[in-house]
């Protein structure tokens, strides 16, 4: 690798004064009143409101300020003083607004009124809630229900998600993709296959007892910064952290705790990772194979393997052991991009630890063979019984605040995951039994013309998906598009023949209904359920809650049913929680009583109890059929593109143009390359180039205007920002089991 002096980078630690300056900058842009400070004070605390940003868990004993840089940005973004009014839309055509960038669209502020798209003037015009619901209902009634899609972003509450899923099934379809389809569906499928559970097995206290943590493809400093606190505490008590990531992310290198006056004054941080290995994109299978090879070699002379656990609780060990022994070190080194010595050093940390946690993120899940990578990480943990006991386990780190919880309460295209027989009896109807569409399948069928209606509960679907150009062209051929949102984004500007933009309350705002102020709930990455109470005055008197909007559309769409009590449910959200408890009694016992439990209440996980809901009834060892997770072989001139998020961004929301932790300021139009590869390609720093698809499918995909920027990366790969480079991701290029877009090793060429 090239010397750091040749690359853009950040010399400081994650956290520290840099983090405070990042928050202060957004304060300056979005400040609405001193009351925002009280809102931040309540954030992520028992009885407070839960952050709309990441899904990292909330501790029972929170810090004085239990929010991170990005969490504060998300809250300030929601509480902006700016308003996007009917007068704004009267002054701008939709065609004009399509030329605006993502940041500037959201800078228009909070949406204030329900709006209907008028194709004659190419403008949004004000409408009433009653008229909007009535027309949406009539349009949906005219369509085959199976031609409609109800998408949900990961921020909608458990209560909203439950009613949204019920609405879809009462209407007649299981087309309920959510943002999990774009990120951690690989976990839901791949992890369930090997442990029987679609979610991780760890709880927060495990991080207080583990001896080692292995990270794969997860950028904690940007995507879940509050996680850095337990990591720092773990390191200080002697826990070893080993990281595998193509990008050397600051959060897993060094951390200064902004909550510590001593650390802030001295600037003395904590080294987080004792080993940091820049694995090739998709090379984690080979890396873990190499570690397992060393563990098995050492076990021949040392008592390392948990033989009793392997015998009682696992299936397939012998086949896995044979595959490890058959793998050559030359191939392992080539596919991982790491040396045997480095992999053996990492494996020694594993061997010397009694309790080990495996962490992974989208650097694992967003690959064509991401499910196999998950299987390999589980293989390694199983060798020494590191699943199903304290201080150990597998822990995928989810992104959006309630994306895991939505799946728990029925947002799923897979009918087998939903208690349809119970719903049929409870609500006296015949729920659809046919499998619904995943996000990729939705995109395919919009392009193909069989999807006629799209309802979006939050999110920015059009901007987040692959094949954006083809999708935007096809999108406008749909009959109906409905978007429920707090702020304007690109998805609201690509409309069907009939289109509505419906503004909702933010999570920090008071939700007043017939029975008084309401509470909503969500599930975090560690399977704990938390109540959330908004206290702020709503941005507009015309806003409705997400539940009220869903109920309003449902009442106008589906026939009346005495057992379906939309008005009662909207009037008192506790009645919805009663329904959730009734539907999922094993997870939500005494839901209303427990929702403000400090640290949340744990919904349980059978794999944590070593009860394996797999086909064999045991935890499954798996044998990968290749040593990298990418979908296409290497060839001359082909690079593996890693799409990345900045620390001034959350999903498709762009807060600003500072990627401080990587040393990139003022732009997102960059192509990150290893300096040696810049020279080898005959390029120069600052040169403007294009990326074109190299997917061997005959389709031209191109993103231009990218400035060549030297950056520390492994050989054969380049980096650029998401969502700007989404057009380069083929729709068919996804994880084989989950259909999650494979955005972490996209085949591209550079055109100067």
Question: Any overview of this molecule?
Answer:
With 752 residues, the chain is of the alpha/beta class. It folds into 4 domains: 68 residues, no CATH class; 272 residues, Rossmann fold (3-Layer(aba) Sandwich), CATH 3.40.50.740; 226 residues, Dimethylsulfoxide Reductase, domain 2 (3-Layer(aba) Sandwich); 113 residues, Barwin-like endoglucanases, CATH 2.40.40.20. It contains 29 helices and 33 strands. The chain has a 6-stranded mixed beta sheet with strand order 5-4-17-16-15-6. A 6-stranded mixed beta sheet has the order 29-31-30-33-24-32. A 5-stranded parallel beta sheet has the order 11-8-7-13-14, with helices on both faces. A hairpin with a 4-residue loop joins strand 20 and strand 21. Helix 1 runs parallel beside helix 3, helix 7 crosses helix 25 and helix 13 packs antiparallel against helix 16. The longest helix is centred in the middle third of the chain and has 16 residues. The chain is globular, with a radius of gyration of 25 Å. 59% of the residues are buried. The mean pLDDT is 94.
**In percent terms, what proportion of residues is strand?**
15-25%
Q: Helical element count?
A: 29
* Mean pLDDT rating: 94
**Which oligomeric state applies?**
single chain
In the CATH hierarchy, the architecture of the largest domain is: 3-Layer(aba) Sandwich
The CATH topology of the largest domain is Rossmann fold
CATH class of the largest domain: Alpha Beta
Number of strands: 33
Task: Outline the biggest β-sheet.
Answer: 6 strands, mixed
**Strand order across the largest sheet:** 5-4-17-16-15-6
Straight-line N-to-C gap: 24 Å
Summing up helix and strand content along with how strands pair, one would put the structural category as alpha/beta
Query: What general outline do the C-alpha atoms trace?
Result: globular
Helical content (DSSP H or I, runs of 4+): 25-40%
Number of separate domains: 4
Radius of gyration: 25 Å
Low-confidence stretches: none
